[in-house]
Design goal:
Elements lengths: L1 H18 L22 E11 L6 E11 L4 E13 L2 E16 L7 E8 L4 E7 L3 E4 L14 E4 L1
Antiparallel strand pairs: 1-2, 1-8, 2-3, 3-4, 4-5, 5-6, 6-7, 7-8
Length: 156
């Protein structure tokens, strides 16, 4: 897993260099080179990966690492690799922030856990429903997508 995170960090640096000068709504952050976890002094709790549909691209490869700092803060790093974005070249963005757990029994008949990811300014970016071996991206209205398998990230 260390090599995989190192690879995506390098890939992120290349993507950020390729995107410099481009105005973007996605929160870009400086890539921090790590060896053991998503950010220094952080313990990685879980890593999820998958390719989800994209509007103007052939897909978006997500790599989500959830971690906890030594002080107990819950942090995440999300690498988004837009496949075939600029003249069929992949473009990569790195997002970081904090995550929390929402308990919500209304999504499924059983009591369910939802991971809520917020950026550094506190804006909620994503919500994922925990399905044990995978997570499913929820809509802004906290509803499940019609095709779960298209919006699932597998636990590594």
């Amino acid at each position: 897993m260390k090599k995989l995170i190192y690879f995506f960090a390098l890939l992120g640096m290349a993507g950020i260099a390729a995107c410099s000068g481009r105005n973007n709504n996605a929160a870009l952050t400086e890539v921090v080179m790590v060896t053991d976890s998503i950010v220094p002094d952080t313990t990685t709790i879980a890593v999820y990966e998958g390719v989800l549909p994209g509007a103007d691209v052939s897909g978006i490869r997500y790599l989500l690492a959830l971690g906890r700092t030594e002080t107990g803060d819950s942090v995440y790093q999300m690498t988004l690799n837009y496949l075939g974005m600029n003249d069929n070249n992949d473009t990569t963005y790195i997002q970081e922030g904090q995550w929390g757990i929402i308990k919500n029994g209304r999504i499924l008949p059983r009591y369910s856990t939802v991971y809520q990811l917020s950026d550094s300014s506190g804006v909620i970016r994503y919500r994922f429903l925990d399905m044990n071996d995978s997570i499913v991206m929820l809509g802004q209205d906290m509803q499940l997508p019609s095709m779960l398998h298209h919006y699932s990230l597998k636990k590594k």
